[in-house]
Request: fold
Amino acid sequence: MPKPAGAHCNLACDYCYYLEKQNLYPRDGQHIMTDQLTEVYIREYIQSQYATEVNFTWHGGEPLMRPLSYYRKVVRWQRQYAGTRTVVNCLQTNGTLLTPEWCRFLHDEGWLVGISIDGPEYMHDAYRRRRGGQPTWAKVMEGIRLLDKYQVEWNAMAVVNDVTASASLDFYRFFRDRLGCRYLQFTPVVERIRRHQDGRHLAHLLDGQDCPMAPFSVTPEAWGTFLNTIFDEWVHMDIGEMFVQIFDATLANWMGVTPGLCTLSDWCGHAAVMEYNGDVYCCDHFVFPEYYLGNIRKRSILDMMDSERQQTFAQFKRQGLPGRCRQCRWQFACHGECPRNRFVKAGDGEPGINYLCPGYTAYFSHVAPYMDMMKAKLDAGLPPAEIMREIG
Ligand code: SF4
Ligand code: SF4
Ligand code: SF4
Reply:
């Protein structure tokens, strides 16, 4: 994931884990990916892919902090270097900077847009605010109306924090009934506090187990209840109509197919990021000095992805599983979830337990009978939505 504006953003959401990455580069004034570096990246990235389809995910901070003229050049370079390959672009944005001109471009170039919105106004504005504290929900809704007007394909990305988890059905129904959104991704917010000398204040895995939880984090129990409540509505009414990423990923694991959600896959390694200056890190959630892979100006993408550090990182998800996960009946569906959340010490003293484990245990136990039914339908060549008639 390239970060053309680094960690810069026009918002300052309380739970943002990326804004503080600016502290990694205190000497640079503007954090902007130059044209020259962008072109090098596009050429290298296309050449490093084996598939006929090459996917770019433009990420931030806020990628729309860069002008439209920059992305027009991006598209030109992609055409120049793609040859016979198909290029697919995704843009992850907070939606507040969208304009008719932007939407025309996104539509004409067929870009897929991921919009960050945390449900209805009171939930969203609890944490997603500007630097001065001003709310942003109304502006994001304006952006979504523009995307619809210009027929840009978009999906919603929402975080599950202490506020959104407390009213899960209002949250889910807002996306389905108010926005008419059919593709939905939830990410649990799990952050701990640890002040670093360079100004960063969020902890990572190597900071140990004694860091206090950030107050906006979702609790493991609330995460489980949140998932189960929404699942119950979805499984009775919305299979085949609403595509909720974590439910799809769970079904994929039930079918023995690799899910499209890294946290529920059995290994990491496909979510590396490149900062504005060409520095590459193992994963968007591991942009820390300890997980630095090199700079694209000095080292090829393939070399960095094949490096021992990245391979060790990728395999840690499986090889670093604690005994509890290895003996868990849900290991095939969970794979110990994201390693960044494995910071809890169990009652018997075993370290590396996933903070969200109680929530996942509750979730997998709850959905298992329905997953079995959907698997049976798929095995029989039938759509999983058929179970809705049977369960009433
Ligand atoms: S919009 Fe995204 S990048 Fe910007 S502050 Fe909020 S979470 Fe961080
Ligand atoms: S560390 Fe977490 S977010 Fe990163 S690739 Fe692994 S599972 Fe995904
Ligand atoms: S549910 Fe808990 S014990 Fe089981 S695999 Fe997931 S994190 Fe590990």
About this structure: The beta strands are 53-58, 86-93, 112-116, 154-160, 183-188, 243-244, 273-274, 279-281, 292-295. The two ends are 43 Å apart (CA to CA). Residues 9, 11-13, 16, 18-19, 60-62, 94, 116, 128 surround iron/sulfur cluster (ligand 1) (CB under 6 Å).
